[in-house]
Structure formats: structure tokens, C-alpha cells
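Collaborator request, handled under Task 6.
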Amino acid sequence: FTGKVEWLGQHPELEAIVGQSLPVHSWKTSPYISPAKSPTPRSAAASEALKKLSEGNTRFMTNTTSVSGGFEDNHASASDICDQDPFAIVVGGSEASVPLEKIFDATPGSLVVQRSMCNIAGRAGGTLFASLEYAVQKWNPKVLVVMGESHSSVIQDAFKQIAGDKPPSTAQSSILSRVMVSALRAQQQVTDQPSGTSAGRDNMMRQLAVELNALYTIEQLLTSPIISKAVQDGSLEIHAAVLDCTTGKVEFVGEHPMQTELMA
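C-alpha cells returned to the collaborator:
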């Protein structure tokens, strides 16, 4: 007796059992394939917003950040602090050592940034969740970006839990329970396709889990009537992204592939 738990996933014949098509279930139980990078937004406004973020990130990586109005501007006045007209919301992780505004070379007040462990959005009715709903209603941003971190320690802790690590504390458990969904799926997918070195598989699992976790946060956000209405009206687009913590580069993944079905 080893005590090891072998995770088998969801029932492969669930659609046949319930007698109806379950597209979201089918997507969740199929191998995840990361979409082509540089996704095409649906609206011109969202396209312009993502272009601003992408160009700002390029300036950050090449150390050519703008001076006028930026965080390097020593002439910014105190009145700039609360002068907000944000064009985007960024939900990011708490582990990056650089402010997310700086990663996008964003001028003060141009972004609403909410950081939490492993970029979770909290639960419906909770403070984190409500603050995002509030921001969407107040500022009508063109995009909401959920950005995962490539080397998140929370993702690593989730894999340790799967492997049978000691039980987490109550506070840790509330976070890990959200992340475990993506970690389990990533592990199952890589286990089903054994190839390469052990280190290579571990890296693939981590990358998959980070991306899937960002998409899972989007799934939670789309349960909000306020946010889903903004998406359906075309005034808001929600895109996933991943921050490479070794280079500072942000890869935009795009909207959730099952967005229409999730809002049905």
C-alpha cells in the first residue's frame, strides 16, 4: 500500500450518459492546444487597447520606456495620482517583483490593476470579484486581461499537492483549490503524452497549468451578469496572457475558446 492517488479525470462518456451535447465538458476533457499567439480582437477598440499594452511591453523589454507621463517621469504632479481614465483592466499575480503598470509602460491612471495570488478573481459576491465588476461598470474598459506568471510558486504548490504533499493551511487551501483544477488537467495531458525528458515534461506541465489557470479565471468572470453582459454587448473583451518572469515578455493568448458556450 503506497497511499498514492491516481487521478482519472471526468467520465469519458458523460455526453452519452446524459443524452445531450456538452461542448464545454468536451473541451475540458480534450487535450488543450494553445492558440496561435497575437490573437485578433473582435473590435477595433479592443485591438487598439491590446496594441497599446503590447507596444508598452516591448518598450519595457528593450529598456526604451517612455518618460513623459510614465512612472519614470519625475515631473508628474500629485494630482496625477487620482486622475484616472483607464482603457484596460489587468488581473495579475502577486509574485512579479515589478509593478504591472511598468511591465506595460503604462501612464499613471491608464490601467486598473488587481493583483492576487495566481491571478484568481475570487468568488462571486466576494470583494475581489465585486471590485472587478465595479471597475467594468465605472470605466467601461475595452479589454480585461487575465495574466498568469510563468514561474508561479502557487502552480508548483498545486503540483506538490497532487503528488501527496502535506495538507495546506486553510488560507493556502482557499487559493490552491482554485488552481488545482488547471494543475490536474495539465498533469493528465502531459502524462497521457509521455515524451522527452522529465525536466521537459515538468516545464510543459507548468506552462499548460499557467495558461489553463488564466482561462479558468476567465470562466469565473463570465459567470458575472455584469461582466458577461459587457462581453456580449461587445464593449468588453477578456483576454488571457502569460508573463514570462525570466524575460518580462507578455504573450497574449486571446479570448476563452469556449466563451460563447460559457455565456449561453
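The cover message to the collaborator said: "The mean pLDDT is 89. Residues 198-221 form the longest helix (24 residues). Please let us know whether this matches your experimental observations."
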